[in-house]
Every structure is written in structure tokens, then in C-alpha cells.
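Question:
When you can, review this sequence-structure pair and walk me through the C-alpha cells.
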Amino acid sequence: MDSSFYLASGGITIAFGLLLGILAFSFFRRFKKVSSMLNRAHEMTGSAHGRISNIINVRRSNRSFRWTNEYPAITYTVNDKDYTVQLDFAEKRKGHYSLGGNYRVCYVPSDPSCCVVEEFRKPMQGSRTQSLIFTVIFAIITFNFVITGLSQILMNL
């Protein structure tokens, strides 16, 4: 095979690796977002009662089935100001949550938008761990694809 084949396959391999890198980065951003809230849990001395103000529907599908999941948006009030947090990591099958459900929200008094809903702390920790694992896996795969692509290109220049 001539060198143009190796150059093209190297370029395609690098492009695929970069797409996986974008996926790794999105998982990393999710990890950082959840981790920053959980790391401030010791500062969350304020407490408020929150209620489900909205239920966000998410459509899922695979080859055989389609279904709808949902996750809650919880609104709580601190100093006469309403705050809303969307708990996308607490996704469940449709019908699990009901509007008006009450939950305990712990927040940072100096920054009430930084909060953890007590009932969802464990799923939040699971989401953080899952995001970290996927970040590492996709980062390793990205590294392998980029190095393989570069070696194909450099060996045939």
C-alpha cells in the first residue's frame, strides 16, 4: 500500500480520537460540576424546604424500545428569593416524581444557589463517580487513537 493510504487512515484515526476527546471533556465537565457542589457540603449549614416545581421529561430509546424518563426541578426559598436546582442525575422512569413533593435542601448561606438536596446526595455521589470513570476511559482511548494516528502519519512521511 502506498503512503497516501496510511496518511489518510492516520488522519481519520486522529479525527475519531478527537471526537472521543470531546466526549471525555463533556464527562469531565459533568464531574467537575457535581464534584464542586459535593466538595462544598461542609459549608452547607443553611437548610430550607424545597418542593418539586417542575418535572423535566427525557426521551430515551434503544433498538427495540422507546421510553420516557424524568428528573425533578426543585425550588426552594432563601431570604425571600426563589432558587431552582435541576437534578438531572436523579433521572427515573416516568411517573416516579410528582409535582409538589417536599425535600430538604442544604445550601451555602453566602451562596444559596450552591446546594445539595439531602435525599439525592447518594445518587449525586454515584453520578460523580460514574462521570470520573467515563472521563478516564475516554481519555485513555483518545490518547491511544491520537498516538496511533500520529505514528501512521509520521512513519509514512
Q: What stands out?
A: The longest strand covers residues 46-61. The chain has a mean pLDDT of 90. Strands lie at 46-61, 66-78, 81-86, 92-93, 102-108, 111-117.
